[in-house]
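Hi F.,

I've been meaning to write this up properly since the lab meeting, where we talked about keeping a consistent format for the predictions we share between groups. The idea is simple: the sequence comes first, exactly as it goes in, then the structure tokens exactly as they come out, then a line or two of notes. No screenshots and no reformatting. I'm using this chain as the first example so we have something concrete to point to.
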Amino acid sequence: MPDDLAAKALKLGHIRIGWVNCRIRGHEDAPHCYRCWSPGHVLARCKGPDRSAHCFCCGPTGHRIKDCKSNPTCIFCQEQGDVHDHASTNDHYRLTQKFNQACRC
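Output, unedited:
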């Protein structure tokens, strides 16, 4: 959709698809740091631990995600004592969810 039409649709707050009026809202992706993997900031402003050499899937160093044979483990949920049976890159880990909730339009 062209930017000018998208801006008009967002201002209106809904679009019509067939016989149905659908509410719409803007969505901005959270910036994501490639150093510590946390949402909310970028590499240039990172003060977190350097996780750039770690596997995105299971967490330890020594291999990359393409070579990973381990079960997925989210390092963020593991640090907080939560269920961590998903990869750290998964959009469903709690830290990203909280950040995305705060950023909703």
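Notes:
The longest strand covers residues 14-17.
The beta strands are 14-17, 20-23.

If this format works for you, I'll send the rest the same way.

G.
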